[in-house]
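User: Could you walk me through two proteins back to back? I'd like the raw sequence and the structure tokens for each, with a short line separating them so I can tell where one ends and the next begins.

Assistant: Of course. Protein one, sequence then structure:
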Amino acid sequence: MELLQGFLVVLLLVGLSAGASPDHKIVLKTLQQAEYECKQILRVPSSEEAPCEPRCEEILLRTWTDCNGLGSIPYGRHFQPDPTDSDFINRTQHCLDSALAGVPGHDVCCQGRIAFQCYRDQYGNPVRVPQLAPMSDILVRSTIEDCARLLQIDDLELMLYGLTHFDMSAKSRSLLRCIVIRQGLYSDEHGPDLDRMFVQCGGYDIDEQVFRENAEYCIESLRSQCLDNATLATRITNYCFPPGVGPGTIPLIGTVLPTVGSLVGGVLGTVRGLKILDSLLKPLAPLLIGLPYSLNPGLQKNLLDLVDDPHALAAAIAALEKGPLDPKIAALG
């Protein structure tokens, strides 16, 4: 598949176990592994610390970006608080707020060092158990491409499936199931991994225990409906982890939709060629203009709001599945 220049999105994991294990592309990493790698990259002796080493470690753990700073949920997993300490989160946040107050915004090395010091001194002791590293944008993109190729789904189908939450046909639901399995977030046997879900999206606006209870209730309700594996995976993703419940993008739909948009070249021209969908998709065309364009959760909602009858859209798209799309596009043009 051809990639449009300039778009990326969310979860990478430990290189040591990626690919060969049942977790597929998941990466697990410890603070100690990140420290060892950074000392090699920055060429410093094991007994010394480079000026920007903590930031390097946080980047390798996928818990830091220079634009957004520290991801507190995934980074906190690398420290074990005292079971009797009920104030470690507030104390850590106070440490960060106080120490960062006078640091210039461009001094990202100092910011990274302060983040490590506050978590080490106020949050808890570093743990040696590998933790989930949120997936990199490139790996998310690769996962979607792999699944689309495996299921023989072309670019236009991929875009249209994304616009309908992947819940419009057996083929679209199989695609989303493949994606979440390859991301290491889901299995048919155990369902979604709630710890990974919580970490991947950077936490939710509710307590983790409440998040787990709500998700478990939703999952059990869907399991009682005796759905096939692909439909169950899709409905759990859409209903139990819906858009807007987290502070940023959600782990699957919020990650998949922007990447889907970046994978499909010439969407506007292709849509114009599809006469069968013209009346339904024409309102979307102005919002798809631009390089790069991205279907983030907010834009995706606006797109769906413009479609008066999403079920009719889904039915029209499903009709196209009866054969390869390229000949149909050529014939309609």
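----
Protein two, same layout:
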Amino acid sequence: MLSNSCQIAFKTSPKALEHWIHTYVQVNAVFSCRRRAPSTRLKHAVFVMLQGCISGSNRTPWCAPIKYVKHGSVSCSAPTGQQHKNVMGTRCKIRCKQGYETQSSEVVCMASRRWSSNYACQEVRCPKLNMPVNGGYKCSDGSYFNSRCEFFCAPGFGLKGQKTTTCQHNKAWSAGVPTCVDMDPPKIKCPNLKDKWAEPGKLTARVTWDTPEGVDTADGILTDVVLKGKPSKSNFPEGLHKLSYTVFDRAGNKGSCRFTVRVRVRRCSQLFAPDNGYMNCDSDGDNYGATCSFKCTGGHELSGSAARVCQYGLTWSGTETKCSPMNINVGVRTAAALLDQFYEKRRLLIISAPTAANHNYRFQMTNLQHAQCGLDLRHVTVIEVVGTYPAQIGRIRHTVLPPGLALQLRLLLRISQRSFQMVLVDKQGTDKQRYPFPITAAELFTTIDTFPLRKDEMVLQQEAGQTCHS
């Protein structure tokens, strides 16, 4: 028995048949938009179909049956009255699993015995990721669904953003592409310097080193290296000096290092001024190359070394310096020889009187008796000449001068032996002042303190702490 469509084809006229073919083609999705008459080839295909109807082969499948869709499911519905779900006009709905997609959610079996489109479920694919600047990424499965991509940065750069992203079923990545930023500070290594020793006679040492270069693990671009402290080839004083270098990269990251410069001074044991003497040292007084010179106060003679130098082995050159009381030789033949012993060492105050009972003489000696400290401070030696020749007596403190030497002294200084008189002689042997009458110790000291040489002595004595308290 013929199907309805076959019965229609045989009961109608040729014009009706052509109209039926045109109408049948319009039903098909592929030819639904055609408005012109079917082609001869199409008509032939319809006649073949009709021939199949007449021969009873209308149940022969047209398209390959869709029994299984990988990664999905299919549901087909055939035209009314057809038991096969792959004949022309059969519609199949395709549903893919999450992460998969098909070109069309519905396909139709065409007269060409092909389905209207590819119905395979293909894996979802996300857009290709951009490569981060100064970095990259690695993916487990390219840009396909569930592919996990991990980002990384070049040495010296740090990741800013999500480290990983995953391709989702909606064709979007779970996170955006991060950026690689320069986060590592540049590296700089400071010099390692050994202790430096000061040069002879100096308290400083010239220290030299090479300026370090910074290294940036990112783009390698750095600012100038900045030093905090004295530059290389400078003279550093004794002690420990802390210095540092700083460098910045283009991202503002700072790298720094610190180092020290230690300058040492070779020093001898400390010297002290001898009793009744002065010491004057150059440089720092006890450092290698320093020289200390010594002088004795008036009335004292220097023994040992007048100058000593601190040597490399940290010992002083020469021998210990001492200032001993002058040994006055009164056995000389002339008054000039006697005075020469005091040259540049002591000032002299010669007191002459005709007798020991002379009123002026007694007053003067009583006044000076309580001023011995002031006399010693001003390097004054008192020489007494009392009496008339040949019974005259001379003495320097407890040392007695021979009568002939005392007479020569009066003659040399033109001192009368018949009246009281005092003569003040400076260290250079100059007759500075004569007094025909007694004076107080204060008046005498005031006069001596005006001498040019005395002013230098006062500075030294003040530095040495030498003074009279009474």
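Residues 138 and 150 are 5 Å apart (CA to CA).

Let me know if you want the two compared in more detail.
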